[in-house]
Design goal:
Strand order of the largest sheet: 1-2
Number of helices: 7
Distance between the termini: 56 Å
Number of strands: 2
Largest sheet: 2 strands, antiparallel
Strand content: 5-15%
Structural class: mainly alpha
Number of domains: 1
Shape: elongated
Length: 193
C-alpha cells in the first residue's frame, strides 16, 4: 500500500536513465572482458596458437555484467520512492556515478582489448581482401559510442535535477491566496437589524 502512494518520479527517472546506461555498460564490458578463444593447431610442423571468436560463456558474462548497472539504478529508483522528492536526486546522482565508473577505465580497457586482437576484431589478416576491421578500429568505435552514450546519460540526469530544482523553486515561491475576511454577520453573531 505504501508503495502505491509513494511518488513515482524517482523510479521514472531511474528507468529512463537505465536505458543509455545499459548501452554504456555493454560497450564497456565488451572492451573490459571480451577476449578471443585460443586454439592450438599444427602448422608447418609447429604448434601455433590460432585466435577464434570469443566463447559463448564470455558473451553471456558481458551481457549479464552489462545488466548490473541499470538494474541497480532501477532498484535505487524504487528505494528513492520511499524518501520523497530527494529520490529523484538519488536516482540522478546514482546514474551519473555509475556512468563515470564505467567511463573512467575505458582507455585502459580499449588498449588491452586492442592488444588481444592483433589482426583486428574480425580476426582476418590485413593482407586479406575480406578484412573488415583494422587493428583497434572496432575498439575506438566502441569507446567513442560508450563515451557519447555516457555523456547523454549524464546530461539526462542533469536535466532531471534541473527540472526538480525548478519545481522545488516554484513550490517554495508559491504564496497562498489571502483568506478573505468573514462577512460582518459572522463577526457579530447574527444579522444586524
Amino acid at each position: 500500500m505504501r508503495l502505491r502512494k509513494a511518488p513515482k518520479a524517482p523510479l521514472a527517472v531511474a528507468a529512463i536513465l537505465a536505458t543509455p546506461l545499459f548501452f554504456v555498460a555493454l560497450m564497456a564490458m565488451s572492451l573490459a572482458i571480451e577476449k578471443p578463444s585460443v586454439h592450438h593447431v599444427l602448422k608447418n610442423g609447429n604448434i601455433v596458437a590460432k585466435l577464434g571468436d570469443p566463447l559463448g560463456s564470455t558473451e553471456r558474462a558481458i551481457w549479464l555484467l552489462a545488466l548490473v548497472p541499470p538494474i541497480g539504478l532501477v532498484l535505487i529508483g524504487v528505494a528513492g520512492m520511499f524518501i520523497g522528492r530527494t529520490g529523484v536526486i538519488t536516482s540522478s546522482l546514482t546514474a551519473i556515478a555509475a556512468t563515470l565508473v564505467l567511463l573512467l577505465p575505458l582507455d585502459t580497457w580499449t588498449h588491452r582489448h586492442t592488444a588481444l586482437y592483433p589482426d583486428g576484431i574480425d580476426l582476418i589478416p590485413r593482407s586479406s581482401t575480406s578484412d573488415l576491421y583494422l587493428r583497434g578500429e572496432w575498439e575506438d568505435a566502441a569507446r567513442h559510442t560508450a563515451e557519447r552514450l555516457g555523456l547523454a546519460t549524464i546530461v539526462l540526469a542533469g536535466l532531471a535535477l534541473g527540472i526538480l530544482a525548478l519545481f522545488e523553486l516554484r513550490r517554495r515561491r508559491h504564496v497562498p491566496a489571502p483568506v478573505p475576511p468573514p462577512p460582518p454577520e459572522v463577526l457579530t453573531g447574527g444579522p444586524n437589524i
